[in-house]
């Protein structure tokens, strides 16, 4: 059964190719034989731009040299345990600074933000004053009155 199926497939493949064939004419055009100029070939052989068997790196720019030097220094620092601890500490400090920056921008603070001096609106100053007021109200230095606000005094 497999042989019959194989014979039928071969028959159709052969029929397909025999239908598509056309008569091919021989090429009768005149061919002129040419040769290369030996002097030009020697010049090109000695030219570095045409020597593909050797890989040549383009010269580094100052910018690339600078960044290679920076990464070399970072690798040199990261080789020691104290260097890794220092880099980790710096990264944590940058992370904390980024969080503080983000919080101040989200809260819409301007100027000194969290660390503003008296006279400027600051989250820490307002919190401190409210805590002081709370202590004074507990010790009954101030008597609570309707409409009492910390900045009225």
- Gross morphology is elongated
Order of helices and strands: HHHHH
Structural category is: mainly alpha
End-to-end separation in angstroms reads 108 Å
Q: What about the largest sheet?
A: none
Helix content: 55-70%
Number of helices: 5
> What is the number of strand segments?
0
Low-pLDDT parts are: none
Q: What is the CA-based Rg, rounded?
A: 43 Å
Relative strand content: under 5%
- Overall pLDDT confidence: 77
Give a verbal description of the structure.
- With 153 residues, the protein is an all-alpha fold.
- Among the domains are: 59-106; 112-146.
- The protein contains 5 helices and no strands.
- The chain has helices at 2-20, 38-46, 62-78, 81-106, 123-138.
- The protein is elongated and about 120 Å long.
- The mean pLDDT is 77.
Brief rundown of the structure:
This protein is mainly alpha-helical and 153 residues long. It has 5 helices and no strands.
What are the key terms here?
153 residues; mainly alpha; 5 helices; 0% strand
Write the layout of secondary structure elements.
Layout: H1 2-20, H2 38-46, H3 62-78, H4 81-106, H5 123-138
